Amino acid sequence: MYIENINGPQDVKKLTVEEMGTLADEMRHALLIRASKHGGHFGPNFGMVEATIALHYVFESPKDKIVYDVSHQSYPHKMLTGRKDAYLYEEHYDDVTGYSNPHESEHDFFTVGHTSTSISLAAGLAKARDLQGAEGNVIAVIGDGSLSGGEALEGLDYAKELDGNLIIVVNDNDMSIAENHGGLYTNLKLLRDTKGTAECNLFRAMGLDYYYVHEGNDVAALIDTFQKVKDSKKPVVVHIRTLKGKGYAPAEEHKEQWHYSGPFDIETGRSLFEGDEEDYSSVSCDYLLDKMKKDPKVVAITAGTPTVIGFTEDKRREAGKQFVDVGIAEETAVALASGIAAGGGKPVFGVYSSFVQRTFDQISQDLCINNNAATIVTFAGSVYGMNDVTHLGFQDIPMLSNIPNLVYLAPTTKEEYIAMLDWSIEQNEQPVAIKLPGGAMVSGRPVTKNFGDLNKYEVTQKGSKVALLGLGTFYSLANAVADEMKSELGIDATVINPYYITGLDEELLESLKVDHSVVVTIEDGILDGGFGEKIARFYGDSDMKVLNYGLKKEFLDRYDVEEVLKDNRLDAEMIAEDVKGLL
Amino acid sequence: MYIENINGPQDVKKLTVEEMGTLADEMRHALLIRASKHGGHFGPNFGMVEATIALHYVFESPKDKIVYDVSHQSYPHKMLTGRKDAYLYEEHYDDVTGYSNPHESEHDFFTVGHTSTSISLAAGLAKARDLQGAEGNVIAVIGDGSLSGGEALEGLDYAKELDGNLIIVVNDNDMSIAENHGGLYTNLKLLRDTKGTAECNLFRAMGLDYYYVHEGNDVAALIDTFQKVKDSKKPVVVHIRTLKGKGYAPAEEHKEQWHYSGPFDIETGRSLFEGDEEDYSSVSCDYLLDKMKKDPKVVAITAGTPTVIGFTEDKRREAGKQFVDVGIAEETAVALASGIAAGGGKPVFGVYSSFVQRTFDQISQDLCINNNAATIVTFAGSVYGMNDVTHLGFQDIPMLSNIPNLVYLAPTTKEEYIAMLDWSIEQNEQPVAIKLPGGAMVSGRPVTKNFGDLNKYEVTQKGSKVALLGLGTFYSLANAVADEMKSELGIDATVINPYYITGLDEELLESLKVDHSVVVTIEDGILDGGFGEKIARFYGDSDMKVLNYGLKKEFLDRYDVEEVLKDNRLDAEMIAEDVKGLL
Question: Which of A93, A161, B260, B426 is a good FRET partner for B57, with 20 to 30 A between their CA atoms?
Answer without folding.
Answer: B260
